[in-house]
Write a structure and sequence with these properties.
The protein is α/β, with parallel strands linked by helices. Helix content is about 35%, strand content about 10%. The protein contains 24 helices and 17 strands. The strands form five sheets. It has a six-stranded parallel beta sheet, sandwiched between helices. A four-stranded parallel beta sheet has the order 14-15-16-17. The chain has a three-stranded parallel beta sheet with strand order 9-12-13, covered by helices on one side. Helix 18 runs parallel beside helix 21 (about 535-540). The chain binds cobalamin (B12) and iron/sulfur cluster (SF4). The site of cobalamin has 43 residues, from helix 1, helix 2, helix 4, strand 5 and strand 6.
Length: about 600
């Protein structure tokens, strides 16, 4: 059997042999939705496909005519797959032979699923599009709410359901989006036997596969344990989508709405990370991205220093080794928090020196880098209201008090922007109990960013109670029609601000401006309710913000009192001063550098 390395999938209609593959198929076949597996067009295409409704697929096709092109191994299996699939594969290979297990693209299932197949396992990130940010944009766009990614996920499940050998095998689903199947009870519809919540490394996961292979009934839902230490986490030794290699698990800041924070806080060993980076390169990847909730905790987990005082040397060393690995041409940051930028601005500068040359992101109008390169981690801003922040994320800004959250955001963003970091920042609109005052406080913060010339790509999303989190049972806004004028103003102001430096992302502005404003106004007004009208006019620029404010149609915002970095440091508890780095300056009055107390002690004869 020989397979072309690349092909345009859309043009090929697979000929399905009713007897299945000649070799009887593989015992275990792993796959993931096509839209979650592709990586050649960059991160943003996947994010766009999570948010845009299927009827807007043409926009994606025009921008990326070759997005369906994928690469194959010699045997027709997938050259790359999301990291989740790779770890399931690695976990299974501890018990099964290499030729029992295969990972393939959805269109190739018929080549590997045959009479011998006992399990088809699907890894998915966001199959039904009901997570934050993804759901909200499709619902704003109305009628056909199904996001592109969701459409392709459903196509995958439909293909599995229709497979002639379906009665012979069990379908097991896992990954960070598995909960969506549980919550929507779509087992029958999607032909899924069991959803696994948790990591594939767990012995419980292996036990489940054993049962499936023996043809035993599977429970609908299985929750498996997360490894508690570094040794329990496996690493991919084949190529992953976007070169994703895990760097940490868990976080430690304990935001109530957060899923990943429920996992233990672990920073993974450098040698294993580097091996996985090299494995990716060996298999043709030129890009690496370290998966983390907060890159800044790496090197500072379970040390004598609290994790929120980053380990500068360790981080710079790790990232330098990654970007300097022969074959790594691009490196993209994943998630971080913002307080570390206030704690250690020199860390940000040193990381910029290391990372900017390999960043594929360019902000021509913002970056001071000679090639206009930029770094864009995803950071949670969530709310500008101190009252709301206290309720949902009281440790988000540690070591700083949550009372100072707006100042931490503004000071952190200043440090980041000065070093050519222009983060994507998420905001949650419609938190349970959110009042007009809370929304006004967030709008104030956004106006303050604008006044200070700071830039972040702001991604507002409607509160979604995520399964198992400490807010799982709480309800916020459930439909765009329920959004208040202020909530709409916040959303539209964010998008307006995103357009300031030109087209940071091609799809956001395009999504908003498709067709004429008149047509959109008509359609969207009935869909999203009257509260949407004035904010939309503000966004479109049809009436100036000043005039809308004068007319009393939008909130005008009020200037904020913001603490400087020096004031923020001065507000820290004196016991935390020992962890500050004096080379950053702004030290609190009375600060004594770490080495000095011993010297002083020696002087006084202690
Ligand atoms: C890298 C990443 C991305 C990348 C690339 C994703 C990709 N396709 O490879 C990009 C930037 C494109 C992305 C996009 C989005 N992402 Co994302 N992403 C991540 C991140 C940082 C790492 C994911 C990862 O690869 N981890 C490492 C692998 C090994 O972990 P894993 O996939 O969970 O797999 C383990 C287990 O789940 C399990 N497992 C996985 N599959 C299976 C299958 C079976 C059968 C079994 C038994 C077990 C199993 O075993 C694995 C370990 O052994 C996570 C945060 C995190 N730390 O996980 C967020 C995260 C998964 N993303 C998230 C979100 C919300 C999104 C977006 C919706 C954001 C948006 N609005 O645009 C989109 C959706 C994209 C889409 N296609 O629909 C949320 C998911 C929230 C939720 N629970 O629903 C997370 C948790 C971030 C967060 N803090 O909120 N993402
Ligand atoms: S800072 Fe981010 S990853 Fe950490 S707990 Fe909060 S939301 Fe979760």
């Amino acid at each position: 059997m020989s397979f072309p390395l690349k092909r345009q999938k859309k043009t090929i209609t697979p000929v399905i042999d009713p007897d299945g593959p000649a070799d009887g198929g593989r015992l275990i076949v792993l796959t993931a939705p096509l839209t979650e597996s592709i990586d050649h067009a960059g991160y943003f295409i996947q994010m766009a496909m999570a948010s845009l409704p299927i009827w807007m697929e043409g926009v994606i096709n025009r921008k990326y005519p070759k997005w369906r092109d994928v690469e194959y191994n010699e045997d027709g299996s997938a050259r790359y797959m999301p990291a989740g699939v790779r770890l399931v594969e690695k976990s299974l290979l501890r018990e099964y032979r290499g030729d029992d297990v295969v990972a393939c693209f959805p269109d190739d299932l018929h080549k590997f699923v045959g009479p011998r197949t006992r399990v088809v396992a699907v890894s998915t990130h966001n199959p039904l599009g009901v997570t934050f940010a993804a759901g909200v944009y499709t619902s704003i766009f109305g009628s056909s709410k199904m996001p592109i990614n969701s459409h392709y996920s459903r196509e995958l499940f439909a293909a599995i359901k229709a497979n002639p050998f379906r009665t012979n095998f069990k379908v097991i689903v896992g990954g960070s989006g598995g909960w969506q199947i549980i919550q929507t009870d779509t087992y029958e519809e999607l032909s899924i036997d069991c959803v696994v919540e948790g990591r594939s490394e767990s012995t419980d996961t292996l036990e489940l596969f054993r049962k499936a292979i023996q043809g035993e009934e599977l429970p609908r839902r299985v929750e498996v344990k997360h490894p508690l230490d570094r040794e329990g986490i496996l690493f991919p030794d084949t190529r992953t989508t976007f070169g994703v290699v895990e760097m940490t698990t868990g976080c430690g800041r304990r935001c109530k709405f957060c899923v990943p924070d429920l996992n233990p806080q672990i920073d993974l060993p450098k040698d294993k990370i580097m091996e996985a980076v090299r494995a990716n390169v060996r298999n043709g990847n030129k890009q690496i991205s370290l998966a983390t909730e907060d890159m800044f905790i790496w090197g500072q987990v379970h040390t004598d220093t609290p994790f929120y005082f980053p380990n500068r040397e360790a981080l710079v060393d790790l990232y330098s080794d990654i970007v300097n690995t022969p074959g790594v041409e691009q490196h993209v940051l994943s998630h971080s928090t913002i307080a570390p930028a206030v704690v250690d601005p020199l860390l940000i500068k040193e990381l910029s020196d290391v990372l900017l040359p390999k960043s594929p992101i360019h902000f021509p109008l913002l970056s001071s880098h000679p090639e206009k390169k930029a770094l864009a981690p995803l950071i949670g801003l969530e709310t500008g209201s101190v009252k709301m922040a206290k309720q949902i994320m009281s440790s988000k800004g540690v070591p700083f008090s949550i009372e100072d959250w707006p100042s931490v955001v503004l000071e952190g963003l200043r440090v980041l922007n000065e070093n050519n970091w222009f983060p994507a920042m998420t905001l949650i609109v419609g938190n349970p109990g959110e009042t007009d005052e809370d929304v006004m406080a967030t709008i104030d913060l956004i106006y303050e960013m604008e006044r200070r010339g700071l830039f972040a790509f702001l991604i507002p999303s409607i509160f979604t109670p995520l399964h198992d989190t400490r807010m799982a049972k709480e309800m916020g806004v459930t439909q765009t029609k329920q959004l208040s004028p202020l909530q709409w103003q916040l959303m539209m102001k964010c998008w307006k601000m995103n357009l300031r430096p030109g087209q940071y992302s091609w799809w956001g502005p395009m999504a908003w401006r498709v067709g004429s404003l008149g047509m959109w106004l008509n359609k969207l007004r009935s869909l999203n309710g009257p509260n949407f009208t004035w904010p939309l006019l503000m966004f479109s620029g049809a009436i100036s913000e000043k005039n809308l404010q004068r007319m009393g149609k939008i909130y005008s915002g009020k200037p904020m009192k913001v603490k400087s970095r020096k004031e923020l440091l001065a507000s820290l508890k004196p016991k935390d001063w020992q962890f500050l780095r004096a080379d950053n300056g702004d030290m609190p009055v009375g600060y004594v550098p770490a080495a000095q107390p011993q010297a002083m002690c020696a002087e006084v004869g202690l």
